[in-house]
Recover the amino acids of this structure.
């Protein structure tokens, strides 16, 4: 009973088993601004300098007082900081709020079991492995053999249908480069989780550590009793 009471006390101190949550990527936060994007910029308290601008082919935007500013290649949050520093020369304590109002067609997305889910700039000739590498690689429980690519196909009369392309990332990792599918602008790549991974991860992250802790407590109690 004393051992159980001691174990429960440790649980109280260290907390209970953590809950799992899934946070979907925020497009503005993860997306790298590119040419053709329409960006909304609010400047507070100097609202007269607020603008909705289009990123030019050279990657720059034009703003009052600041002139031409490089925007391409920045995340929204990063560009906010750059603009705040520039505007601080003319406005006292400016607060910049920036969001991408309209994306250019040159982007692809990757979601699911990937370390950096979100939107990425599309490059001509870009392939599946290029996107996965840019997004930081797959997670431990990714089911590489069941990757799906959702692709919009334009038909006659401005109709759009969706095609689902099967991809085998595991085969690509194994050296079968012919399986490294070429992406198209607008593609959304989904990397699923292995079916058994949820239970396996819970056991690995929670059951095994607590079992080790319980073993330690029991051992310590036996040693203390013998002494």
């Amino acid at each position: 009973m004393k051992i159980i009471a001691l174990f429960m006390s440790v649980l109280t101190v260290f907390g209970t088993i953590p809950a799992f949550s899934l946070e979907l990527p925020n497009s503005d936060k993860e997306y790298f601004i590119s040419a053709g994007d329409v960006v909304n910029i609010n400047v507070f308290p100097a609202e007269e300098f607020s603008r909705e601008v289009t990123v030019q082919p050279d990657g720059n935007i034009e703003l009052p007082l600041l002139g031409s500013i490089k925007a391409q290649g920045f995340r929204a949050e990063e560009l906010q900081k750059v603009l705040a520093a520039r505007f601080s020369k003319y406005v006292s304590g400016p607060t910049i709020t920036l969001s991408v109002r309209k994306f250019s067609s040159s982007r692809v997305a990757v979601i699911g079991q990937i370390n950096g889910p979100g939107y990425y700039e599309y490059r001509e000739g870009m392939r599946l492995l290029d996107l996965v590498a840019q997004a930081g690689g797959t997670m431990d429980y990714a089911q590489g053999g069941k990757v799906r690519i959702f692709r919009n196909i334009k038909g006659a009369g401005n109709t759009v249908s969706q095609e689902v392309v099967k991809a085998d990332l595991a085969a690509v990792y194994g050296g079968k480069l012919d399986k490294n599918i070429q992406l198209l602008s607008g593609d959304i790549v989904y990397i699923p989780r292995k079916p058994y991974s949820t239970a396996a991860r819970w056991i690995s992250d929670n059951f095994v550590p607590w079992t080790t802790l319980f073993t330690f407590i029991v051992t310590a109690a036996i040693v203390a009793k013998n002494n």
